[in-house]
Amino acid sequence: MALLQKHAMKWFTALFDSLIRVYCLSTLIVFSPVSPADEVEELSVREEDGEYTLRIVSILDAPADYVYDVITDYKHAYRINPSITKVEILPSDHDDVVRMRDVSEHCVGPFCFTINWVGDFLETRKGDIKVTTVPEFSNFESGSAIWKIRSRGQHTWVLHESRLIPDFFIPPVLGSTILKNKMRTETLATFKRIECQAIIMLERDMSSGTELLNELSEEGKDCINQVDMAANMSP
């Protein structure tokens, strides 16, 4: 029994240390600038009574048509969200609704877990997308989101709002803080990838994608590997 208690205490200590390291890193992220180029106009993540809400407004350095094409390329959603490991387009009861299932992998320190999500995408008008979580196939009790995509000349104004109630255990206080900061950092990464993908697709149409990929890599903005680059370069 003493040996078992010793191993249990060792495991708990390791877990606690990992959570503290993640918490400290997340705290640094929270109080760092949202974007060095001030591209993100607004970003907030909140939790109340188990419901997590996120709102981001950003100006992307790419034309709206290309940004729209990237966001609505549901089959390749993994390209803009590195946590997604599997994407599947499911049958829908409505012709104007796209039902998508994705599987994502998330890690806190050495501990990783998988989340399943199924959602319906409905384009209410050009540049406006409504997303509804399907709880019976997801690890969430409920959820919804909206996208608004507007042209600003050669740039694009994008608004994204979402709300989710997880159907899995989240440790109080510290767990909620870690999750909110993870949502925040993943959202920033996703928007950066959306912009990068849109630029690559623009360059595809200008027949100079390889040069742009090298340029993005040199600038530390490489958002896509060579395999996905080849897929994006296809018609």
Put the structure in a nutshell:
With 235 residues, the chain is an alpha+beta fold. The protein is 37% helix and 36% strand.
Molecular structure report:
α2 crosses α3 (174-205) and α3 (174-205) runs antiparallel to α4. This protein has an eight-stranded antiparallel β-sheet. Helices cover 37% and strands 36% of the residues. The chain has a domain at 37-82 and 124-233: START domain (Alpha-D-Glucose-1,6-Bisphosphate, Chain A, domain 4, 2-Layer Sandwich), CATH 3.30.530.20. β7 and β8 (155-166) form a beta hairpin. It is built from five helices and eight strands. With 235 residues, it is an alpha+beta fold. It starts with a helix and ends with a helix. The longest helix is centred in the last third of the chain and has 32 residues, at 174-205. It has helices spanning 2-30, 64-71, 174-205, 209-218, 226-233, and strands at 40-48, 51-60, 84-90, 97-108, 111-125, 128-133, 140-152, 155-166.
Most strands sheet: 8 strands, antiparallel
Q: According to CATH, what is the class of the domain at 37-82 and 124-233?
A: Alpha Beta
Q: Which spans of ≥5 residues are poorly predicted at pLDDT below 50? A: 1-38, 216-222, 228-235
Count of separate DSSP helical elements: 5
What is the CATH homology-level superfamily of the domain at 37-82 and 124-233? START domain
CATH topology label of the domain at 37-82 and 124-233: Alpha-D-Glucose-1,6-Bisphosphate, Chain A, domain 4
Order of helices and strands: HEEHEEEEEEHHH
The whole-angstrom Rg is: 20 Å
Report how far the terminal alpha carbons are from each other: 65 Å
SSE-based structural type:
alpha+beta
Work out the number of β strands. Answer: 8
User: What is the overall pLDDT average?
Assistant: 78
Helix fraction by DSSP (H/I, runs of at least 4): 25-40%
Write the CATH architecture name of the domain at 37-82 and 124-233: 2-Layer Sandwich
